[in-house]
């Protein structure tokens, strides 16, 4: 078993919205029900950027990074930590002072899932958040008997997963992207229904296509100015599920008459809350499904790999072209491939 040093390199930020850097901090120890993971890879996700910008943490101790992969090298007391010891896992962070953008992370054992040999460290590091969210979306579609779904920012990693799962389950997906370039990319990769929100005819196109396919659920991660108009053309009794805020808008503007007259229901989706509602068994089933999908063709595109010491460069590269694929921090790895 690898020996555990007293200190480690971890990312930090001087203030919310500030500059990322790396520093030496003590390696944390796992307590009851917790494990210590030696991190191998960790992606940069929109939720990481939102948190870094929003703040609400102590910059002295905060270590960013929501998800990652690595090996459990120490276990606190309890059965699950003992079972996981020595295993390669996908994991998510539990504590603000122990994120995945570090050489080691302490987290709850229940936030780790063993990786099978067919999933490499990089794909494993992205196995939790987006695949489980895509599974959650398709569950919502099934639970509410929607015939088709609409998804925004659809050139994203999550967007590609939602469409893949929709195709597998016979649920047509209307993909909304914000540039003709992304629309072309999606059409060339086989997407049947793609709308460009920058086009003059977008709102009319959305109204026509959503009625044609009876697409009565819109998953929106943008909260753009257009949202009110989009809601206004959906079929009656549609649901709008807000799951992201890529524009950073503080408010969404919706005509209340449209909600009342057309019986539109607006709700939020947060994977953490959904997982709590799912319960242990359903979460385990979903993780197995995610593992199987990531083992087969549900791969996340990667545009770049960076050492932890270049964390700010990694974030800048990702923000420069989010649809080009994820940027992955390679940690405890001698080579950046
Ligand atoms: N609620 C939850 O539990 C949950 C869970 C997972 C993911 N999410 C959300 O899902 C979304 C996608 O995540 P991801 O990891 O798949 O992202 P990603 O692969 O990193 O890609 C981000 C995408 O967002 C697009 N985008 C960025 N700013 C935009 C804006 N202002 N308007 C429209 N599109 C914009 C980018 O398109 P361009 O190339 O055009 O910039 C890109 O396609 C994020 O909002 C994330 O927070 C939420």
Number of strands: 15
The name CATH uses for the topology of the largest domain is Quinone Oxidoreductase, Chain A, domain 1
Bound molecules: NADP nicotinamide-adenine-dinucleotide phosphate
The average pLDDT value, as a whole number, equals 96
Description:
The chain has helices at 46-54, 79-84, 121-125, 129-143, 157-169, 180-188, 202-213, 227-233, 256-261, 271-295, 311-320, and strands at residues 7-13, 20-26, 34-43, 67-75, 88-92, 104-108, 112-114, 148-151, 173-177, 193-196, 215-220, 239-242, 265-268, 302-307, 326-330. The chain has 337 residues and is α/β, with parallel strands linked by helices. It folds into two domains: 7-126 and 300-330, Quinone Oxidoreductase, Chain A, domain 1 (Alpha-Beta Complex), CATH 3.90.180; 138-272, NAD(P)-binding Rossmann-like Domain (Rossmann fold), CATH 3.40.50. The strands form three sheets. Strands 3, 4, 5, 6, 7, 14 and 15 form a seven-stranded mixed sheet that branches. It has a six-stranded parallel sheet with strand order 10-9-8-11-12-13, with helices on both faces. The model has no long low-confidence stretch (mean pLDDT 96). Bound molecules: NADP nicotinamide-adenine-dinucleotide phosphate (NAP). NADP nicotinamide-adenine-dinucleotide phosphate binds at residues 45-47, 129-130, 133, 153, 155-158, 178-179, 182, 221-222, 224, 243-244, 246-247, 269-271, 322-323.
Secondary structure topology:
Layout: E1 7-13, E2 20-26, E3 34-43, H1 46-54, E4 67-75, H2 79-84, E5 88-92, E6 104-108, E7 112-114, H3 121-125, H4 129-143, E8 148-151, H5 157-169, E9 173-177, H6 180-188, E10 193-196, H7 202-213, E11 215-220, H8 227-233, E12 239-242, H9 256-261, E13 265-268, H10 271-295, E14 302-307, H11 311-320, E15 326-330
Parallel strand pairs: 8-9, 8-11, 9-10, 11-12, 12-13, 14-15
Antiparallel strand pairs: 1-2, 3-4, 3-6, 3-15, 4-5, 5-7
Helix pairs in contact: 4-5, 4-10, 7-8
